[in-house]
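Hey team,

Sharing the tRNA methyltransferase run so nobody has to redo it. Sequence (84 residues) first:
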Amino acid sequence: MGIFENIINHKINTITTGELLNYAKQFQISITREKAEKIASILRGRNANIFNESDRVQIIRDIARIAGKDTANEVNRLFLKFTK
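Structure output:
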């Protein structure tokens, strides 16, 4: 894994609610504060690799269970922007 991937994964695995809301705003993704709190709690400390498709899919499934399918799809869009 390259340094760029390490930096992005570290940020994802330590993200705060505020940071998630800022990224969502920057990439024009609509997420409420309540959903951002739930999503950030799922991501923090997980040590997941969003560049690995199976890891990313599992994260999105977990987010969908808590925050809903539409929000999970929005987060997946954000992840895909980070990985390109």
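Residues 3-83 form one domain.

Ping me if you want the raw files.
A.
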